[in-house]
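Researcher: I'd like a candidate sequence for this fold, 353 residues long. If you have to choose between options at a position, lean toward the conservative one.
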C-alpha cells in the first residue's frame, strides 16, 4: 500500500467504512481518493476506541477526494485530510454539515470545494469557537448546486476564526432556502474574487448578510477590485448587494448578466448618481445603487438585462446615461425601450461634440 497513489472504490455495498484509523499511515503516497455507490458506508475513516493517538496520523500527500452517490455517508471530513486541496461531494443525502466545528482548523489547505445535489445539507462551514489567531484558508473556488435545505454557507461570521480572502470563483445554483451568500467579514475581504454567479435561488435577498453585532456606524466599503463577471439569474426576492448604506468598488467588471430578478431595482445596479450613496439623509431602508457607473460601466464588454418588472421606475435616470456609447464592438442585450434611451443619449452626445 505504501506506493499506492490513486484509490477508486465503487459499488462496494457491504463496506461500512473504508479505512480504520490505524492503517491510514500505510497510505503515505496516496494522492487521489474516489468513493462512489457504497450504499452501507457511514464514514470513510472509522475511529477505533482506545487509539486516540492514531488520529494524528495523516494522509501525507492526499490532495483530491471525490464522493458520489453515498446515501448512507454521515461524515465527510476527517482530521487526516489536512493536506487535501480539492473536495467534490455529489448526491450524499445524509450529510447535514460538510465541515463540523470540530474540524474548523483542518481544511485550511483546501483550494476547491464542490458540493452538489445533497438534499439535507444545511451548512457548509460550522464554526463554534474563537481562535487566538485568525487562520487564513487557501480556498479559491466554491461551487454549490442543488442544496435545497442550505440555510447558511457559514454558520456564523468567521471573523476572528478563519479568513477566506483568497476566493476567486463562487458559483451558487438552486439553493432555495438561502437568503444571503456571504457573511460581512468575508465580503469585506474579497479583493481577489473574479467570478460571482448566483442562479435560481428563490429566497436570496442580498449577497452580503448584515452584521448582527457591530459598533461601527460608518457605511462599509466593499472592494471587489478583481471582479470581472457578475451573473444573477432567477432570484425572485433579490433586492441588492447589501441592505444598508454602503459603497461597492468593482473597477474590473466586464460582464453584468441579470435575468429574472423581479425585485431588483435597476438603478441599484446601473445608476449614474454617486451622490445618493454619500447622502447622509438617505434612509438605510431605501434601495441604493451598489455600482457607481463612472467606476464600473466604462469597462463593460457584455451587458444583459432581462427583468422588466421595475424598469419603469428608473427610466428617467437612464435618460442621462452615456456609458454605452463605446459599445460598438461589444454585446448588449437590452429591452426595446432601453435601447431607444441609449440610442437617443448617444445621438445627443455626438451632436454636442
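Model: Candidate sequence:
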Amino acid at each position: 500500500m505504501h506506493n499506492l497513489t490513486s484509490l477508486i472504490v465503487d459499488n462496494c455495498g457491504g463496506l461500512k467504512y473504508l479505512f480504520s484509523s490505524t492503517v491510514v499511515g500505510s497510505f503515505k503516497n496516496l494522492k487521489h481518493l474516489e468513493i462512489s455507490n457504497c450504499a452501507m458506508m457511514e464514514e470513510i475513516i472509522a475511529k477505533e476506541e482506545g487509539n486516540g493517538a492514531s488520529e494524528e496520523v495523516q494522509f501525507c500527500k492526499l490532495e483530491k477526494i471525490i464522493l458520489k452517490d453515498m446515501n448512507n455517508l454521515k461524515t465527510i471530513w476527517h482530521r487526516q485530510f489536512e493536506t487535501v486541496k480539492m473536495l467534490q461531494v455529489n448526491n450524499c443525502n445524509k450529510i447535514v454539515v460538510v465541515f463540523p466545528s470540530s474540524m474548523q482548523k483542518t481544511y485550511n489547505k483546501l483550494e476547491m470545494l464542490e458540493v452538489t445535489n445533497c438534499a439535507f445539507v444545511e451548512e457548509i462551514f460550522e464554526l463554534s469557537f474563537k481562535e487566538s489567531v485568525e487562520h487564513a484558508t487557501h480556498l479559491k473556488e466554491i461551487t454549490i448546486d442543488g442544496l435545497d435545505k442550505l440555510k447558511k454557507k457559514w454558520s456564523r461570521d468567521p471573523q476572528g476564526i478563519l479568513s477566506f480572502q483568497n476566493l476567486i470563483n463562487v458559483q451558487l445554483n438552486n439553493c432555495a432556502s438561502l437568503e444571503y451568500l456571504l457573511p460581512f467579514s468575508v465580503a469585506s475581504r474579497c479583493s481577489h474574487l473574479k467570478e460571482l454567479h448566483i442562479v435560481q435561488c428563490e429566497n436570496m435577498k442580498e449577497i452580503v448578510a448584515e452584521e448582527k453585532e457591530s459598533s461601527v456606524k460608518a457605511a462599509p466599503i466593499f472592494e471587489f477590485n478583481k471582479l470581472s463577471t457578475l451573473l444573477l439569474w432567477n432570484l425572485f426576492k433579490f433586492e441588492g448587494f447589501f441592505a444598508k448604506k454602503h459603497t461597492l468598488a468593482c473597477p474590473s467588471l466586464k460582464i453584468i448578466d441579470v435575468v429574472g430578478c423581479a425585485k431588483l431595482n435597476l438603478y441599484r445596479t446601473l445608476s449614474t448618481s454617486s451622490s445618493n450613496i454619500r447622502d447622509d439623509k438617505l434612509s438605510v431602508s431605501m434601495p441604493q445603487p451598489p455600482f457607481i457607473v463612472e467606476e464600473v460601466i466604462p469597462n463593460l464588454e457584455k451587458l444583459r438585462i432581462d427583468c422588466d418588472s421595475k424598469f419603469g421606475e428608473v427610466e428617467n435616470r437612464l435618460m442621462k446615461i452615456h456609458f454605452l456609447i463605446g459599445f460598438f464592438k461589444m454585446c448588449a442585450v437590452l429591452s426595446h425601450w432601453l435601447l431607444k434611451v441609449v440610442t437617443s443619449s448617444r445621438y445627443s452626445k455626438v451632436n454636442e461634440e
